[in-house]
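ok trying this again, last paste got cut off
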Amino acid sequence: MIRRQRKMSVGHAVREAYKEACDRKLKELYGRLTSYSHDGQKVFLERNRYQIGALRSILRDDGPGRGMDLAVTRLRGVDLASLDIFEINGVDWFFAVTWTPFEIEYYGGYRRKGENDHAMILCPKGYQIWFPARDLGTSNINRMAFLPIVDVRLAHRHMHHYASVGDDYVDGVPALAPARSCWSQFGSPLSSAMQAADLPGVLHLARKFAGRYYEGSPLIGLRRLQDYGVVQ
């Protein structure tokens, strides 16, 4: 196993985009609160007490070990090389990059007992992970893009993530190309983390998704990814 000694930095642009997402989510929660009766509001506040408290703490920047400081500590604990903000057509996108080389767990024959059920394969150049900052705080994970750095224009990106390329590109930007993903067990927790505006949780799960290939539910076969040099 490849072990990393460094942790990614979390710059000002990422912190500001994260605060904006938390602000949007908090306003949405308070907007929903007003639609309830007095008794309903008490139930709603109790049900969402932890999330509201966490969002408010981040926005207040409550100091060491709390709020944004705690969120940054969690972000730096995600096994990624870098995280930044990239503007596409006036829209901010979170843009993360895995370490290189990037190890991927491959489950080739988990439906039957025998040899080669599990192996580690190497992605020499790693992946870029993209999603719009405005999706943080919603349940939408369908605009997430996993681009193999060996060639970000490839349609054959990942065993569980396939893009329409060529003329289907939006303004020639790979992250905007229509894509399909087979989320398997990652779909529900990733959608929940996105809806909660939990950026560290989203990135942790997205990195886990990028680092798993399951032969039982591929959009793309392993051999095709090997042919394109995505993995060895």
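PB: full thing came through this time. Residues 136 and 178 are 19 Å apart (CA to CA).
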